[in-house]
Design a protein that fits this description.
Strand content: 15-25%
Helix content: 25-40%
Strand order of the largest sheet: 3-2-1-4-5-6-7
Structural class: alpha/beta
Number of helices: 6
CATH topology of the domain at 3-106 and 138-154 and 176-189: Rossmann fold
Distance between the termini: 13 Å
């Protein structure tokens, strides 16, 4: 399957950059064709622009119907798969319906644990450390109308050292995120992971 990837990002876009870098290194059937951010100053947009990728700022401050605008952009670029890369807004229902089983998210823990509304970034790592877990990890899952409850496509465990803090765990997790997101996209393009 030739993946024409649309990316939604809000802030730094380090996962976006990792995917861009791996696409350059490997001969894969994946092309990032559009990046949308709800934040006009996001570094994700700067990263994409510097790579010659089409970039768009779409937010509730600039448009009445965010979902309609996202669909319009992604349709224009024939997007057939969407990756969320630190997108901090709820996906509009219209987008969920149009791209059902075609929206991926990355979560910095082993779902179904430590998921749900408000569980993102350091909130997740602090909860994991406070629970004295032996492992955390990274989950790639499909997005549906409930936070972090879509079908799990790929996971990787990350052992937690006794002296790990939320911030040292976050660093370990991010390294795995950067590898696992691309690896999962590649498996989808090779039809080794099926989305239906």
């Amino acid at each position: 399957m030739k993946i024409r990837l649309g990316v939604l990002a809000s802030h730094g876009g380090s996962n976006l950059q990792a995917i861009i870098d791996q696409i350059k290194k490997e001969n894969v059937n994946i092309e990032i064709v559009a990046v949308i951010s709800n934040n006009s100053g996001s570094f994700a947009l700067k990263r994409a622009k510097s790579e010659g990728i089409n970039v768009y700022h779409i937010s509730s401050k600039t448009t009445f119907d965010v979902g309609e605008q996202i669909i319009k952009v992604f349709r224009q670029h024939q997007v057939n798969l969407i990756a969320l890369a630190g997108y901090m807004k709820k996906i509009p229902d219209s987008v969920l319906k149009k791209y059902s089983n075609r929206i991926l998210n990355i979560h910095p823990a082993l779902l179904p644990k430590y998921g749900g509304e408000g569980m993102y970034g350091m909130n997740v790592h602090e909860a994991v450390i406070n629970a004295k877990e032996e492992y955390s990890g990274v989950t790639i899952h499909l997005v549906n109308s409930k936070y972090d409850e879509g079908r799990i496509l790929n996971q990787q465990k990350v052992p937690i050292a006794k002296d790990d803090s939320a911030s040292t765990l976050a660093e370990k997790i991010l390294l795995v995120e950067h590898k696992l997101y691309f690896a999962t996209l590649k498996l989808i393009s090779e039809e080794k992971i099926m989305l239906q």
